Structure formats: structure tokens, C-alpha cells
Amino acid sequence: MLQDNALSDPQKEQKIFYLRVVTSLLIVLGLTSVILFRYFDLQINRHNDYVTNSNNNRIHIRSVAPTRGLIYDRRGQLVADNRPSFTLNIIPESTQNIDQLLVRIGDLISLSERDIERFMKRVKRNKPFQSIPLKYNITEQERAILAVNSHILSGTEVSAQLMRHYPEGPLLAHSLGYVGRINDREIKKIDPEQYRGTDFIGKIGLEKYYEDILLGQVGTEQVETDARGRVMRILDKKDPVPGSNLSLYLDTDLQRVAMESLKGERGALVAMDVKTGGVLSMVSTPSYDPNLFTSGISQKQYDDLLYSADRPLFNRALRGQYPPGSTVKPLFGLIGLQHKIYDMDYSIYDPGYFFMEGIKRPWRDHNSDQGGHGYGVDLAEAIIESCDVFFYTTGVKTGIDLLSKESGLFGLGDITGIDLPGEKRGIMPTREWKKNKRRQEWFNGDTINMSIGQGFMLTTPLQLAVMSARIATRGEQIIPKLVKSIDGTPVEPEFAGEKISYDKKYWDYVHQAMVDVVHSNKGTARSISEGLTYKLAGKTGTAQVISINEKEKYDSSKIDKRKWDHALFVAFAPAEDPQIALGLIVENGEHGSRTAAPIARKVIDNYLSGFQQDNKSLAAARLIHDFSNPAEIN
Amino acid sequence: MYKYDFVRQLNTKGGDRHQNPFHIDVTLILILFVLCLIGLFVLYSASEQSFYYVKRQATFMLAGFIGMLIVAQFPVRFWERIAVIFYAAAVLALLAVLMFGIEAKGATRWLNLGFTRFQPSEIAKIAVPLMVSVYLSRHVIPPSVKHVVGALLIVAVPAFLILKQPDLGTSILVFASGFFVLFLAGLRKRYLAGAFFSALAAIPILWLYVMRDYQKQRVLTLLSPEDDKFGAGWNIIQSTTAIGSGGLSGKGWTEGTQSQLNFLPESHTDFIIAVLAEEFGLFGVLGLCTLYLLLVGYCMIIAINAQSQFARLMAGSISLTFFIYIFVNMSMVSGLLPVVGVPLPLISYGGSSIVTLFFGFGILMAISSEPKRIGTWR
């Protein structure tokens, strides 16, 4: 209060001011030092960290998807190729509000719940500033709509990429399989670096089995992007290496014939080139269009396929396990002969039934309506007329152990080793097998059931084809293969073991019996012999319905037909120099002779006519070649 | 040397100044010119190498220079006399903003005059220290309690009105400019201590009752920017990255990746120092700080040599306020202070800021070119 009334003293006031100015200047210098220290700390001490940060901001490694390897059939026809397709992508970091953006896009083009759900999942696991696909396969029209509205769709981009396409659609679905989007389970197994450029992976079939070969090597591009994720320039580049191309043994034309023949049926057929093991045709009907899976199948379409009573997704040729029925008779006969259980002169009396010592219930002969085949039924007749009693009798003599062991050499009871995933092994029972699975001893009754391909025994159509091929080649343990060459390099035929060394006379005997199944007037498949220009060896079979049908939901309108027996047929031709062997089944086809055998003939007819043509043109080509290079003649 | 030189110099010192009929301070103009030139260079790089902002900024600067020269022609006493009217006009304009202002980005800061829009808070930056200087220079210093309270009231009214806009940054700066006058006027140490501790005590109150959520968010972001990398923390992460990656000598003019590729937000306005630091490195920062210190120091000399108590206080406050802009801006961009909207003087793009700054320098030039009494140190 005193100062209030005091007079001002200019000198004192000036002094106070000067002191304060000096203080201020000190404070100014102090604060400036703080700032400079901070900038020094950032720019010198932590310079390297921030250089890294700044580079991480702007430099991104962009993956360049390799082109997936193409697949050709044996004649060079493309059966799996890549077609351009457009995808709508979003870079989440470049948008202000993802939900709002999704709503905007949803107003312009149709977006399914599944698209959005899958997109949101990937948002969580992706690296920042990577574009994430929202919708695949957008149409020209949708592209135009998006382009016009691009000003409100900041952070979106439409990219072009190659999408797998199967020109033949359902025809080759079960062998080629298909690619689909990588799912959560697969993501844990794969090397994420290899799959950075692609969203697709082989799911089933050849696409899965040869995934590593077909995929190729991912390429990279080091790009500089701005804050909105736009690429400003490419700094460095490593080109992708395309996947290898596969050439198959499969013959699309033959496949079409087989498919047509089985149309409307549930069944499977496998035809093999007996020299190489090459699979010429592999059919499982009904089939499905694999292109549905590459472009994103809708839940309804998928449910329709999955829950259809006909099970189109089920590869019967590879995974369907059926009792082989009488188709194993030639093999079992051969085993008996080779191991001197009986000889070629051995015959029995067939009253139409068979009694086992100590068992009251007789085993009936399924192939004779009245009485039996009578006196003097030898192995040949038993094969030709498919006499069960002969095999009941000899089966018990041969015994389970020998049958089981030797059948293994012909591909039964184990996977064949074909280049497809998910093959079933069937059942070739042994004493141990029964002990383990059924907790019971092996009875002779079990052997009797098995001796006509029933009982515990199960085979896949592929195994039947392999068995025929090994009989046809007189014991070459050929392994079936779909792929003939990879990038032009032939895949060598593989064998499961040494050639089976059975006596020639027994091979001749059984081959002749199988030829007579078709060509003699008593043969069960004589109906297909008309007009044959070559000798076709075969064996019919009928299998009682058990196995896969047990698990199915029955469609009441079809319930009766679904209890019918399965019709089977195995064959090879031409008998004197076999080229092709096959195994086939028609579910609920009742009799091998009536339903299955005609299909086999159509397929073999087609193949052998084509084969002869091929040979002629090959010879012609050689001729031209020789004339054009006269020097080589010398 | 002529034997009467010393006396003559003493006698003619003021006379020399009298011979400065256009009231020009060449040193001041030179430093400002160099700073403006640097500003334009950095701005060119910061605005994606387009001349659009550079041209506009150059126009503002030219207008600012002319305005500064005009302001300098008025005698110091004129500013002393119109201080009350000027202050009253500023307070009225601030009230008008709250009532009829133009809203943008959640804040009401602009007033539309029909032909142009302007921010009354910019006037307050000059009017408040002017008014406080006049008020305190009329009383004995160091100021008594009564006059301290009076001065604080003069400061508080516009500061509060600006806080309501809301514009915390400007409010604090306006408050600071008034407070500097008090400080320079010899505010007693016990009051200073009191002010310091009440400021500390005010922090929790500010936090709980005054600060808005977005302001609190900025403080939290400062403490841990990584918590919200792509949201609130983005600006500060990107600006520190820009500064740090510049290193000692920088990436080169227009070569800064952070600024050129748009990672750095607000690169041509509030965050422009990050562009300079990235492209010219620590050398650039040191150079700029040296120029700034030269300017502040020179302004302080003007203050010391001023002829009246009012002129001293006004000149000192303008210099310190100028410095505090620099300090707050460089600190917030480098992550030392929360982000408040304070531009970097003479470098950041923005017409209002340029015009206000040159207005202040105009008053300083008026003070520096006043006739001097014999014996002042120079």
C-alpha cells in the first residue's frame, strides 16, 4: 500500500526493467536450449531409429503373384488355365472409416455378408498398407460403377489378376480338383511368404497334390508409396517364377465317353494305360463344376452339393469302397494255381450251394437260379460263368493268409500310390485285421465270404483298375499316375515292386478265361462281344449293398433302387497285347454284365480306335521325318 | 580522432535518429526479410512444390511489410493513447465471435465482415499487451497488489472469451503476452512464486472442469503416441519421424519423404518446422534458431533503449510473445508439448498470423525509431 502512493522513480524503474530483461533473456536462452536439446536428441541420438521408421512408412514390399502352372491333357488340350479377373480391394489405412466405406460400396454394387465377413477377418491379420480383397470377380458393369464413383471411394482399388478356370467344368472335376481361397486351417500350414501374392491354394485333386509345383515362386516389388498407399515409384523388383505346367495321361475325349456312359448313374470308372500306369480316364458321377469354387461358391450352392443324396463332391473312383464281388475271381484263381492249391484240371461238382463242415447254413451260388453249374466245373468255367461254389471250395483250401498276402501284390488292401490326395485303402482282411477291428478270431466262413469278393473285403474302383492292369501285364506292379510330364520332363513310370513271377501257363490260362467271359457263348459278359474287332478280357461282378450306403440319408422315392446290388466290371484289351485296363462300378446297377460291361466296352472301343489312329499318325510323322532328313537313313 | 568526437557523438545520437524521417529500422527489416525468405523456401517444399501457397504467402508478407511500415509512422504516444479503444474493440469483437462467429471444425473463431473474414483473437494478441503496458506504465512499478489484480483482469477477459471459442492455445498465448508485461514491470518475486504454484494447482482444475475431451486427448497422446498410431498419435509420430530422420544435414530441399509423400500432416502450416528439420537437418534447425534469437535479442535491445516506460513494456512483451510462439510450436511438433494450434512465426503458412506479427514489429519499429535522449545505450 505504501508503494501505491510513492512517487515514481524513473531510474529505479528502468533498473528493475533492465534486470527483468536480462532474466527474460536467460529464460529465452534456457528454453531455446531445451528445444535444441530435443532436436539434437531426435536428429542425432535417435536418428537411425527414425530413418527406419520413415523408410517403413514409405517403402513397402509388394508381392507379385506367380502364374499358376497350366494343366494339359494327353493331347495337349488345356484343362486348367488362368483367366483375367477383376477384384475390388481396400487399403484400410487409406480410408477414414471402413464401415462407412463398406456401406457406400454396398449401395453401389452387391456385397454379400460373406464378402464382408471374410474381408474383416483379413483386415486383422494383414500388414499395414496392403490392399485386401473385398469382392472377387467383379463384372464390367460393376467396374464402371466403381470408376464413376471413385471420388467417394478413397482407399479402394480394382486390381486385375489371373483366376483359375477349368474349361471342361464337371468333366475332370474329380481328378483335377480345384483351387479355392486359403482358409484359416491352411494358413497355419503354409509358408506365408510363398503365398503373399495369391489368395488361392489347391484344395483337392491334382491342384492340391501338385500345389508346390503349380504355385511357382512369388515375386516381389519394392515400392515407394505415399500416405494414402498410392504407389509413387518402383524401387526394386524381383520377377515371379511361374508354376510348372503339368501334362496328364488323361484323355479328355475318352473321359467324355466314360462320363456320357455313366450319365444318370452313381458310379465310377478308372481306365489305365497298362504300360505306364497312366490314368487315361477317371470318372465319378455325378460330378460338379469346379469353377464354382474358384469364383466363390455361395452357401446355398455349396449346401446343395454337400447334402445331395447323390454326393457329387464324393470322388467314388478314389474314395468309394465297395465289395469287389466276382471281379476278384480271376485273381484268386490265379493265386490258387500258382501256389499249387489245385491245378488247371481240377474240377468240382456244383449243386448250387456249398456246405462248410460244422455249419448248417449253406452258401448259395448267386449266379445260378436253378440248381448249380453241375459236374466238371473247373477254374476257367468258374471264371467264365462266375461260379461261386468253385471259389467257396477252393477259397477255404487256399486260405486267408495266402489270398491276403498275394492280393496285396495286385494292389488290393492298400493305397495304390496314385498322385492324388485322399486315396482310400479299401480292406483286404487278414487274421490280425479281424482281431484288431472286430476282436474276433478269423473263421473259415469269413474266407468263404471273401472268396467271392464279399464279406469284409472292400476295394476302390481305382484298385480294381490297378488289379486288372497288373493281371494284364502279367505281374508288372505298375503304380497309377495322372501326370505324364512336368514342364515337358517326363515323369518316369513307378512300380510298387518286382514283377510278380507267376508261371506263364497260369497267366495264359487266366487271360484266356477272362477273354472267354466276353467272347464265349457261356460268358457272363457275352452280350458285349458283338462286333468286337479285338479281344477283350473282362470279369463281371455284383456286390451286395453295404458300405457307403449305410451312412446315407435315404430318399424315400429312391429307397428301393438304392438297395439294389452294385454292378462291377474289370477289363483289359487287347488280350494278346494289353494296352488299357479298367475297373468300374455302377451303384445299384444290379448286374455287372448288363449295366457295367457295356460301359467298359464303349470306353475301350474309343481308346483303341484313337490309339490306332495315334500310331498311324505317329508312323506317318516318322516317315515324313525320315524323308526330310535323308542323312539319318544312313 | 577529433578531440570532441565523444561529446559530439553524445549530442548527435538522438539527432541521427531524427534524421530517420521514415522511421525505418534496417536491421529489423533485414532479419525479418531473411526469415520470410527462408519461410517461402520451406513452404514451397511443404506444399508439394506448388507455387499456390508460396504466392499467397508472399502476398501476405508484402502486405505485412507495408502494414509494418505504416504502423511505424505513428508515434509511440499514439498507440499509448488509442490503447483503451483498441482493447475495447478487441473485447467487443471477441464477444461478437461468440455470438455471430463462423463455425469451422468445432470451433468458432472467425468473424465475417462481408468483404473478408478475420480472427478477433489475433487483434487480442496486440491489444492485450498494449492495454496492460499502458495500465502499468501509469502506475509505480513494481506494481502493487491492486494493479496486479487490475492487470490480470485486463488479461483475463479476452483470454476467457478466446477459451470459450474454444481455442486453448491462443488463450494461453494471449494470457502470456499480458503476463510478460507484468513480469517485465517487476512483478514481485513472491507474486511470481504465487503465480507459479497457483498454476500448478490449477492443472487438476483445468483437467477436470475446463479442458475438453479433445484437449485432454492431446495431452494423453503426447505421453504415449503409440497408443493410437493411426488416430490421435499419428501427427506426433509422423512429425518426430520427419525430424529424427532428417539427421544432421537433412535429406535435401524437396527431398523429405515424410513431407513429400504426405505422411506429415499440416506440413505447410503448424508442422512446417518438421519439414525444415527433415530436409535441412539439425543444421537447418540451428540456423533458424540463431536467426530467431538474433531477432528476439535485437527486439530486447529496442525495448531497453525505449524512451518511456510504456514503450519498454510493450516492446519487451512483443519480443517475449514472439519467442513463446517459437517455443510452443517447436516443442509441440517435436513432442515436448501437447498439440495446440500455434503456427511457427514467419515460416508457417497463414495470413492472419503474418499480419499480426508484422503489426507487432511495426510498433517495435516505431519504438526503435523514436528520438532518443542522450546517454541511452545502443
**What profile does the largest beta sheet of chain B have?**
3 strands, antiparallel
Chain pair with largest interface: A-B, 47 and 53 residues
Put simply, the count of helices of chain A is 25
| Large-scale geometry of chain A | elongated
Question: In which range does the helix fraction of chain B lie?
Answer: 55-70%
Q: Quaternary status of these chains?
A: heterodimer
Strand order of the largest sheet of chain B: 1-2-3
C-alpha Rg of chain B (nearest Å): 22 Å
Give me the strand/helix succession of chain B.
HHHHEEEHHHHHHHHHH
Output the number of helix runs of chain B: 14
Structural class of chain A: alpha+beta
Q: Segments of chain B where pLDDT lies below 50 for 5+ residues?
A: 1-17
What does the main sheet of chain A amount to? Answer: 7 strands, mixed
Relative strand content of chain A? 15-25%
End-to-end CA span of chain A: 134 Å
Can you give the mean pLDDT of chain A?
87
Helix content of chain A: 40-55%
Number of strands of chain A: 21
